[in-house]
């Protein structure tokens, strides 16, 4: 090697390897060295025909590029001594502006304005999103807690025999309302019943409901019969003198049957007219404002004495048709004596729409003068229209279809009647009356105890701590109710559930034989196991104890008994 040239001819003294590889050489020597190599390897002087390896334009590299050169590789041919030079490609990669170039742009008015614009837009968008989020939270429907239940909705209610009934501390510790029926005339002074005022005074901290009949009274009858001026129209009079054998129309007394026909009209020998008495006693004329005022005074008098609510009798029959037209027939069956009260429609004597404003005034007095007192009706409702104002039912704890008032019950029958009553009453909170029946004491009370509504219990039914716990649960006070039949329609059952709370299953066997139930199969919402909460005294299955967890399969229920089971509801799928 001489100078910067490669001595190719010297290969005889020092043979080159078939391939020789050299590392990178400085850029400024690349062009000249490449020429010498080409000249010597070809054995002649350059004649201008050879081109430069890199042109001047190709060697110009922007300050924004980085040069990456590959290795220079020589390959020789051992036969003729030729050599080949391979030079890799020159690659450039963009690396951005230099600091000096960036600083020139930083103070440029255009870029300054653009930066401020983007800065302001960013914070405006951020503030807009924040305000939007707040508005969504404010405007979103609130998950408000359910309206608290009143004392008469929490229930249950219990009947008292008379004012001598003792309300023990055990009873008072519950949310019971106590219903007392008075034996005397509704419009008679309170002291007519000895001990009544003392009873009310001694139980001011209890929730006392008085049962009254506003439609009948003897208090003013003698004056009305004698046509004393102020009392002439206190009762409903009809007919002409001397027509004692010809009642004004075909209206029958409620006690009228096929065996004994009884007209709703009674003839007065004194006044020589008929007076209306469908219940046997003279019926007051509530189309007379003075009579309306009399009963309002009665309500106020009892409230002042400490009463918290009223159960009123015969309100559907409060008013009668002013034209005194005949009642229509429900049907015209062949060979039937039409002397029975049940064969008539009673559209002229019951549930007249004019009753609504009268009931509304009574309700206003009760609600305004008591601490959310209750207005109940003793009668089952067969029409809601006369008792609604602006879509709201004026009657608390309405009754319809006394589902338990049968000597023999079946599971499908109970489902039908309870669902029918709930639908008819437009899902208002009802009262469930438990009458005496052929079932063991306390059985039907347990069945009704957790139904949606307030059960009216018999006086001797014991409310145990486990029943109190279940009754006070949100699942019972606010939850969903679903009715079922199980075990081939032999078992009546229903569930009460509310999110985040234990569910309750009530099961009743109305049959005379033991039934084994697969609750997990027959009722989809029941999990694999539940806990025994309460059972009736006649439930006598072994290995079933209060507080014990039991599998929901093959669960036994004794004849004519009921049981309450608690469980953890399945998660929604």
Give structural attributes.
573 residues, alpha/beta, Immunoglobulin-like, six-stranded antiparallel β-sheet, 26% helix, elongated, disordered N terminus
Question: What is the 3D form?
Answer: elongated
Instruction: Assign the CATH architecture of one domain.
Output: Sandwich
The description of the largest β-sheet is: 7 strands, parallel
Counting DSSP E segments of at least 2 residues, the number of strands comes to: 23
N/C terminus separation: 88 Å
Rounded to an integer in angstroms, the radius of gyration calculated over CA atoms is 50 Å
Helix and strand arrangement:
Layout: E1 19-22, H1 27-42, H2 56-59, E2 72-76, E3 83-87, H3 99-106, H4 109-139, H5 151-154, E4 157-160, H6 169-172, E5 177-181, H7 196-202, E6 208-212, H8 221-225, E7 237-238, E8 265-268, E9 273-276, H9 289-305, E10 309-312, H10 355-369, E11 374-377, E12 388-389, E13 392-393, H11 411-424, E14 431-433, H12 443-449, E15 454-457, H13 465-471, H14 474-477, E16 480-486, E17 491-497, E18 503-509, E19 515-517, H15 519-522, E20 529-535, E21 549-551, E22 555-557, E23 561-567
Parallel strand pairs: 4-5, 4-15, 5-6, 6-10, 10-11, 14-15
Antiparallel strand pairs: 1-2, 2-3, 7-9, 8-9, 12-13, 16-17, 17-18, 18-23, 19-22, 20-21, 20-23
Helix pairs in contact: 9-10
């Amino acid at each position: 090697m001489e100078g910067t040239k490669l001595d190719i001819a010297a290969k005889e003294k020092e043979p080159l390897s078939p391939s020789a590889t050299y590392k990178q050489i400085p850029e400024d020597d690349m062009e000249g060295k490449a020429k010498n190599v080409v000249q010597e390897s070809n054995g002649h002087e350059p004649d201008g025909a050879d081109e430069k390896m890199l042109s001047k334009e190709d060697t110009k590299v922007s300050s924004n590029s980085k040069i990456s050169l590959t290795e220079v590789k020589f390959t020789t041919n051992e036969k003729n001594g030729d050599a080949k030079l391979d030079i890799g490609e020159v690659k450039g990669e963009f690396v951005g502006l230099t600091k000096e170039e960036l600083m020139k742009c930083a103070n440029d008015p255009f870029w300054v304005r653009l930066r401020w614009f983007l800065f302001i837009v960013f914070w405006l968008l951020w503030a807009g999103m924040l305000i939007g989020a707040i508005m969504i939270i404010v405007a979103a429907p609130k998950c408000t807690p359910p309206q608290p239940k009143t004392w008469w909705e929490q229930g249950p209610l219990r009947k008292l025999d008379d004012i001598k009934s003792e309300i023990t501390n055990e009873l008072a510790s519950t949310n019971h309302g106590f219903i007392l029926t008075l034996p005397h005339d509704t419009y008679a002074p309170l002291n007519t019943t000895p001990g009544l005022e003392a009873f009310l005074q001694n139980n001011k901290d209890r929730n006392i409901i008085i049962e009254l009949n506003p439609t009948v009274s003897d208090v003013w009858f003698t004056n009305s019969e004698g046509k004393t001026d102020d009392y002439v129209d206190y009762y409903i009079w009809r007919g002409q003198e001397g027509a004692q054998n010809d009642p004004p129309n075909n209206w029958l007394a409620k006690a009228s049957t096929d065996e004994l026909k009884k007209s709703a009209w009674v003839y007065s020998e004194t006044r020589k007219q008929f007076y209306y008495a469908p219940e046997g006693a003279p019926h007051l004329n509530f189309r007379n404002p003075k009579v309306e005022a009399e009963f309002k005074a009665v309500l106020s008098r009892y409230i002042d004495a400490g009463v918290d609510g009223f159960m009123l009798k015969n309100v559907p029959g409060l008013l009668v048709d002013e034209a005194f037209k005949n009642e229509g027939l429900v049907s015209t069956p062949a060979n039937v004596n039409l002397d029975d009260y049940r064969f008539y429609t009673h559209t002229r004597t019951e549930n007249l729409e004019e009753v609504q404003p009268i009931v509304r005034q009574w309700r206003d007095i009760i609600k305004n003068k008591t601490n959310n007192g209750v207005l109940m009706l003793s009668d089952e409702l067969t029409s809601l229209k006369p008792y609604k104002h602006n879509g709201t039912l004026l009657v608390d704890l309405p009754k319809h279809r006394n589902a338990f008032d049968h000597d023999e019950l079946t599971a499908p029958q109970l489902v039908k009647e309870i669902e029918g009553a709930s639908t008819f009453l437009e899902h208002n909170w009802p009262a469930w009356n438990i009458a005496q029946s052929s079932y063991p004491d306390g059985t039907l009370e347990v069945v009704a105890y957790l139904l949606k509504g307030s059960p009216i219990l018999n006086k001797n039914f014991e409310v145990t701590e486990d029943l109190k716990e279940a009754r006070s649960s949100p699942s019972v006070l606010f939850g969903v109710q679903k009715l079922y039949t199980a075990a081939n329609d032999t078992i009546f059952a229903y569930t009460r559930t509310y999110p985040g709370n234990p569910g309750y299953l009530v099961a009743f066997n109305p049959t005379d034989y033991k039934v084994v139930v697969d609750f997990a199969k027959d009722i989809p919402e029941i999990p694999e196991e539940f806990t025994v909460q309460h059972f009736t005294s006649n439930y006598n299955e072994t290995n079933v104890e209060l507080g014990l967890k039991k599998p929901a399969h093959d669960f036994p229920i004794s004849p004519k008994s009921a049981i309450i089971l608690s469980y953890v509801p399945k998660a929604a799928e």
